[in-house]
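Contributing new records

If you add data, match the layout below exactly. Sequence lines come first and carry their own label; structure lines follow with theirs. Keep one chain per record. Anything else will be rejected by the validation script.
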Amino acid sequence: MDPEAFLDLANQVTKLKMYPYFDLAHAALCCLAVRDDLANGSLPFSRKRPLALWASSMLVIFAGGILANLLLGEPVLAPLKNNNQLLLSTVVWYLIFYSPFDVGYKFFKFLPIKVICAALKEVYRAKKVHDGVTHAAKLFPNAYIVMIAIGAIKGNGAGFVKIGERLCRGVWTPTAVEFLVPNFSTKASILAALIFVVDKKTDLISAPHALVYFGVVIFFVYFKLSSLLLGITDPFVPFENLFCAICMGGVFDVIQETF
C-alpha cells in the first residue's frame, strides 16, 4: 500500500465516531458477558430481578468512565449523561435478555455477528484507552503512572468492576479482583496506554501519532479475533513466565531447592 494512502487511512481511523455502531457492539458484548456469567440462572434471575440486572449491565457498559471519574475526582455519573448512548445500551440489554424466543441473544452469539462486534469493540477499546491517557495528561501532565492507569481502566473498566457488578446481582466474589488474575484485555490496555504515553511525552517514537494509534487498533483487533477464531487466549503468558523466572525469584527458588 502507498505510504500516503496508509497514513490517510490511519488518520480516518483516529476520527471515527463511536456512536452508534461501536457503542452498540460494546454494549452487546458487555451484556453477553453478564448473561454468560449468570449461566443457567440467567432466565429466572432476569424475570425476578430486572432492575438489578439492568443496573449490573449498565455498570459493566459504562465501567471505564465511572471508575476513571471516581479516581480523578470528577462526577461519577457523568458517563450516564448521554441519553442516546444510555438508551441504546438499554435497548441492547433488553434484546439480549427479553427478546421473544431469545432471538436477540442468539443473534449476537452467532459467530459471524460476534466476530464483527468483537472487532468493533476493540476499535472502541483503543479509542477509550487513548482518551483516558489524553484526559489524565491534561490533569496530571507529569504523572505517567496516572496516565497509564486511567488509560487501562478506560480500556477495560468491566474487569475492574466485576466485584461490584456481581454485587448488584447479590453475588459476593472477593477473589474476582482484576489485580489477582488480570485478563488479556487489561494487559493489552496497559501496554497500549504505555505506548500512548511514550508517544505523547517523549521523542522515542518518531512515527506520526495517527500511525501509532492505528497500530494499537490493529494489535487489539488481531489478538481479539485470534482469541475467538484460533483459541489464542493470552500471548503475554510466555513473557510473564520468563520475567517471573528471571526477576521475581523463580530461578533462585529452584537453585535453593536443588541445593
